[in-house]
Amino acid sequence: MNGIRSRLFGRGRQEEPGKKIREILKSIPIFDGLSKRELTSVERILHERHYQTDEIIFRQEEPGMGMYIIESGTVGIVSEPASMQFSELHVGDFFGELALLDEAPRSATAVAKSPCRVFGFFQPDLFSLVERDPRLGVKIVLRLAQIIGSRLRRANEQALTLVEELRQLKQSGEKR
């Protein structure tokens, strides 16, 4: 009767718990190609966190512990101490993934730009997953390495472009 009542009075079907985060996980390249069972395994080890506007998620120079996936809200990635914003991230975006591989200090600060719900995927949980399900763990780590490699290549290309632009500026300044 409650099912009929909710359909009649406009509440509609309630989404099953975890459905939204599962859909987000499917869209994240690190989890690309994982089966429903594998996505469920990942979902079980995520840590839900809520942040208010202007609340720091992590600070530049703090040791990295893992990555975050935005389920709702907006997050800014900021360089300290100048508070220069590198990027603004939204639902379905992820950040901090390099910390899954090492505990090096964070290269930027992540701050909630609006109330946020994020899910943390932390290094100890990834390592535990690798021990429990090596095949799944290797899939995730391999995709992570591919993404980081791609970003490194893109950063190198941008750096070379900037070096060339700087060289041209210096040459044009010398000619004057």
Radius of gyration: 21 Å
CATH topology: Jelly Rolls
Derived structural class: alpha+beta
Model regions low in confidence, pLDDT < 50 over at least 5 residues: 1-17
Query: How many strands?
Result: 8
Using the alpha-carbon principal axes, give the shape.
globular
Number of domains: 1
Number of helical runs?
A: 5
Q: Identify the CATH class.
A: Mainly Beta
Report the average pLDDT across residues: 86
Largest sheet: 4 strands, antiparallel
For CATH, the homologous superfamily is named as Jelly Rolls
Beta content: 15-25%
N-to-C CA distance: 84 Å
Helix % is 40-55%
What is the helix/strand order? HHHEEEEEEEEHH
The CATH architecture name reads Sandwich
The strand order across the widest sheet is 1-8-3-6
